[in-house]
Amino acid sequence: MMPADRAGLNFRQDYFDDPAGWAAIKSLLYDIFSVDLDPLDSVGGYDRTSFPSAFFDESGRCIANLSGFAMPLIIDGRPVKAAGWQSGAVRPDYRGLGLFRALIRHTLQRGEEQGFEAVVLYTDKPGLYAPHGFRTVRQFSFRGDAPRPIGGQKPARRLTIESDLGLLQRLLAKRTPVSQRLAVTGQAEMFLLNCHLVEDVSLSLMPDEKTVVAWRMTDGGAFQLLDVVGEQVPCLAEILGALDLTPASVETFIPPDRLAFDGEPVGDDGPLVLMMRCADDLLPTEPCCLSPLAEF
Ligand SMILES: CC(C)(COP(=O)(O)OP(=O)(O)OC[C@H]1O[C@@H](n2cnc3c(N)ncnc32)[C@H](O)[C@@H]1OP(=O)(O)O)[C@@H](O)C(=O)NCCC(=O)NCCS
Question: Which of 88, 121, 186, 234 could form a disulfide with 66 if both were Cys (CB 3.0 to 4.6 A apart)?
Answer without folding.
Answer: 88
